[in-house]
Amino acid sequence: MCGRYSIYEPMDHYLKALASAQLVINGYDLWPIERYNVAPTTRVEIIRPVGEGLSVDKVRWGWSPFWARGNRPDPINARVETALTGRFFKQLWPNGRALAPANGWFEWVKDPNDPKRKQPYYIRLKEEQPMFFAALAEVHAGLEPDERDGFVIITADSDQGMIDIHDRRPVVLSPEHAREWVDPQTSPVRAAEIVKECCRATEEFTWFKVGKDVGNVRNQGEGLIGPLMEDDDPDE
Question: What DSSP state is assigned to residue 159?
């Protein structure tokens, strides 16, 4: 996963798709989020369990344990193969389970004839339904953001045709499995099964070329996720 995704519907749109029996305990904006180009280190909405309910919080994308901060940029992703057992994310597993709702994500593919040239692709569900990325987060209650707060998206190996785009992809959960992932009653053993075995299948997704404007973190707007017509490609 190359580090950009989109989330642009109102939060109610994602919560209704999640259809959790857990109540949302805090307020959240009702208007469209309109983040078409979410980049690392920016604060963006995630959904996490709090007591017997759910909380919607704007949290920085990227996280490191206290003993690793400042040595390198905070990771934005966590490999499922090591996230649940490795030392780095031990502080977040299993009680830091969260969801990063999204509409799609971006990957860049190198030109086989010129590695310096990369073509961005946008990946979304064929039915254009909300996605739920499995995530791990640290969030401290308070009126102001805490410098310790952050989240990472869990990734797994790509399979079938998607590997042509990138060898890793976010673990996208169905609403059913997403509800389980953030349910405090779900045991760590079951949660590990969900994140390792229940990523939505490749055939549920579609992907297509998009314009290179997404490469600039300052760019936003619906045009970033529109299919690139061959006549629009300046490199053609």
Answer: -
| Nearest C-alpha neighbor of 212 from the set 123, 126, 122 | 122
Q: Tell me which H or E stretch contains 178.
A: helix 175-181
Global confidence as pTM? 0.93
Q: What is the DSSP string of 60-102?
A: EB----GGGTTSSPPPSEEEHHHHTTSSTTTTTTTTTEEEEEE
pLDDT tens by residue, 125-160: 999 999 999 999 999 987 788 899 999 999 998 775
104-111 and 114-125 beta bridge pairing: antiparallel
Strands (E), 89-195: 97-102, 104-111, 114-125, 131-138, 150-157, 168-170, 172-173
**Mean pLDDT to the nearest integer, 189-209:** 94
The SS3 assignment for 143 reads coil
Q: Give catalytic residues, as residue numbers.
A: 2, 107
